[in-house]
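User: Fold this, then the next.

Assistant: Folding the first:
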Amino acid sequence: MRSPTARVPLPTLLLALLTVVAIGCQREAPEETGSPSDQPVDYAPEDTLVVTGTLLDATCHAEMETQGGDPSTCEGDYVIHGYPVGLRDDDRDTVWMLVAVPQSLVDYLTTHVRVSGVVRSRGVLVPQQIDVRDGDDWAAVL
């Protein structure tokens, strides 16, 4: 039996990360409506973005989606142990993997946030600042 403070083997962590990134990067082909928001957007490494969305336990969500479970039951159990945090983009319904210390964000899971950061690779964002809603304003948490 593993203790709550046991380290997760690196191959397990990498497999979980790759699974979540793969799920988050899949997109359906947009219908030809001519609307700019319907067109796929590809970002290059080093592009700077501001993304608003919801922080989530990426590994739990990936497991629930592949097993037909309810992703809303995810409470951050994986994040507490160092698994990645995802950011579900409000505008495009895509998931970004955040390169940050996961445990520092566990209190903000399921919270609406604004993340300013730099694209590391496809589907991976390095946050420079993370803000949470504080009434009508935003408050920096990272």
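Now the next one, as you asked:
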Amino acid sequence: MSYILTISEKYWPYGGAELATHLILKLLRDEGFSITVMTGMKNIERISGIQYTYYPLLDVPSKIYLWARILGSDGQLKELVKRSEIVYIPRVAYPIIPLAKKYDKKVIVHLHNYQPVTYCSVIPYPYNVDDSSIFHDISRSARFEVLENGSVIKSILSSLMTPLNGFVKSWIAKADEVICVSKRQAEIVRCELPKLANKVRVIYNPLPDVSLIEKYLNKPTFLYVGGDSYYKGFHIFLKATANLLHNEHGVKFLLAGNFRDKNRGIISSLNKKFGGPYKIVGWLPHKELLKLHSGVCGLIFPSILEEPLPYAVAESMLAGTIPIVSRVGGVPEIVQGTYAEKMIFTPGDIDELVDRIEEALSLSKDQLTDIGASLRESILRKFDTEDIKRRLLDVFT
């Protein structure tokens, strides 16, 4: 089998894209590939049989630093590329692509966001093909920094850097294969970058090993995992649940993720008003986060992004928890044909979200258990490991 050089500045347990990379490399290792991972992280979860190398050049605070350092890199990176047969880029180390092609290496890019399309790497719902001008992208990047990070300075800097994304498009155009994680993501990428149309392959991310979690449903409780991210729908979650609590007493909400002091204060005020229904559990390791599903009857996922393929929704179904989800990005592909499809709501529609939560509240414990089991069966069929492996081998061989 071939020797794969994987360039991933971040690695598991950092985030969803890194989890996907971790699981994919494990599948490829089992198929006999020789794999080296170069990463800018030291504290990572390693897979036996794969060589990991900490590379300081990749240990940078932003993608601009990353791109600049790769372009000015030393001979070590060149030698590693020369010894490889396949260069795999699952994050944003795109300046390596021209170097790899210089030595006639096969290059596979795996997209877990929309970096080739927009500088800020995310696309707010709804995507509109008429919004593809550089001026719109500058506006989108500036708006993202203000709404997501509350930073005018970052907004200005992002606006100035946005034209540099043109280099990303030219780099990725040289890749041999481009993997998208959902049909919706592939549709947007092909629309924005027609030169990639014949290179794009849709392969769902492998599922992590998540058991069907036994439920202890003493009180009606819902889980929200987006932190205080504007684009993950934190403001929508707050409005909908506050509206619900005027009529539904005794409902509880667990809030996972990172929360700034200002938003912790808002939660504190709502707790005083409604008798303490919100509990911030903060950022948790992946395994600890999954354990929360034992005490919840639903996941609330009010994102207003064109989500490529969020693990939070798939893992909810694996754990036997009903996801209440906004109709964005690849989310409908995950829940299609299941009970969870009934729980989809229009992005940003507070009344619809309240209705879906109330519908979940109307279900008995037995109904929740039966629905949870069927959701798990469905997601395991849709994200079939053997099918995903076959599609990956079609790309990597």
